[in-house]
Amino acid sequence: MRASKSPTRASAPSAIPECGPRLLRSSVLLASEIGEAGIVVFTRNGSLPQTLSALRAWRCPIYAFTDDPKVFRRMLLVWGIEPFLMDFSAEPEQSIRDAFSYLLRRAWVVPGDWLVVVTNVLAGDQVVDTIQMRPVE
User: Fold this and answer.
1) Which of 26, 36, 38, 85 has CB 3.0 to 4.6 Å from 72, enough for a Cys bridge?
2) CATH assignment of 21-135, among 3.30.470.20, 3.40.1380.20, 3.40.50.720, 3.60.15.10
């Protein structure tokens, strides 16, 4: 008989990784249910887009924005990722607007399309991971 590895109440909870796999899986499901909506993700190391790629999002392109040329080149090799090199603003909302404008200018999206944005926001002294649905305007 195998020993159970289920956590007990006395055990400390394991750390939840930033933008954990469940949040990313939810973003893929949301984009798929909207109907061919894209996913916009911002990264400095490439791990979030790689995880999204591993989820094999079907009919929802993954637009990954980074400000690091090395990460950009690595993401060129990842299945299902459309990488973009862009400077990030100090204001997260401005980075999202810049990414949408970038996609519009290059005809990756058109007004009326929906995008699922995976990002994090500062709430007091905590960083909170979020999924947002936004129309392209």
Assistant:
1) 85
2) 3.40.1380.20
